[in-house]
Amino acid sequence: MAVGTVSTRILTDIANAIRYQAGVSTTYKPREMAAAVAALDGTDAGDYQAQPYMALESGVLPESVFSDIAGAIRGQNGESTLYAPGEMAAAILALEWDVGYKIRALLLDDGTLEINYYERRTSVTGGRIVQVFEIDPAGYSSASARSYDSIKLLVKKVYIDSTIGSLGLTNCAYWFNAFSNCTEIRGFENLSGIKTATQMFSSCGSLETIYATSYTNAITSGSSMFYSCNRLVGGTDGFVPTMTSAGSVCKLGAGGVLTDPNNDNRTWFWAHFYENGEAVLTATSTPDATRTLRASGRICAIGKYVGLGFTPWDGATGPTHRQYLTSVTFAADMATFSYLNLIYLFYSCTNLASVSGLGNLSGVRSMRYTFSSCAFATIDFRGFDPSTLTDLFYTFSGCSSLTTIYADSTWALPSSGITGSQCFYSCRALVGGNGTAWSSSNVNYTYMRIDRAGQAGYLTAA
């Protein structure tokens, strides 16, 4: 950190400005001044006494002293101004405080948006306040009408404080609309009883979790409440909302998008998408440091995903578009998961030519659209236990290059509890191990069996 000479008059002016705002006679060392500025809250103790300039005209201080003071000033006024040391006293004297009980949205330095109801600007989560906005309790008619709309892309998490719960709010329309980088909401139980939630979470494409310890659903207007929330997964049974899901799915339990933090059934695996086109699916969150990474993200193991938009290869354009996915490896540690849904996982990955490691999976339930429209000619299910499968709907549909599906000779689907129409739709090149050729009349899941004498199927025992 740079060290420089500074006039002691500047330090005295800063200290006097702090004393004036706090109404105190306290003396401050240079390194104490930033904390003193951050502690100002508009309270005047009534004992202001200015200190005279020191006889020593200059001294040597590290640059961090002034950068910390400047940061504390910005934390108080919510501005982004860069202050020279000689400007800081005036900036402190210009501070005004937001007092009185009101609903505030506090943007903290860690990307959390904290919503609370206190007499003063206060963060109960402990973060440094960067910007403050007042929320209109009457609600908003559009996202752009929000006081905090300008910082929507800066929000990574939301915390709704318990002080909100007693206010009886009824209209939260557009509150979190287009918070596209926000991954979780905490304290949603404090919005129990709201009636209007139109587009409340619309276009929150990174949102995975809405935590609520309890919730009473009274929503009467909630159109497009969860539109394009492709990654949002409920904590009970992995429910994922559709584009048209409205307020009725805003609940705890089966078929709900909320998650009780004390009863979260979800587990997560990671997908690391590398520069060479390979995706490695693993229980390990850390990608291989020796390889160039395109993108990485986690996927809910029990998630009942309803379309694209939840994988690292779902970019709209550019290097993370699914067309660049050419191979997939399920790592050995995927065997640690006892419940897996693979719904839409590689849907329309039209250049995916190689899949390995399927034998490392167990407890797989749904494979709805898993490999639809992929490019591989062969796929190997040896070591894969099919006994838990429940859904093979359109699993291989559109795999026009697929010729061979290998499986253990003991392969057997469950005798009940499984569906899967159009499993092999348009798999025109597919031939079973005993010579059974694909037919448009036999495209349902029942042909996901070993092709042998007396039993036609599309699998080859190996």
Automatic annotation (TrEMBL):
InterPro entries: LRR_5, LRR_dom_sf. Pfam families: LRR_5. It comes from the Bacteria. This is Leucine-rich repeat protein. The lineage of its organism: Bacteria, Bacillati, Actinomycetota, Coriobacteriia, Eggerthellales.
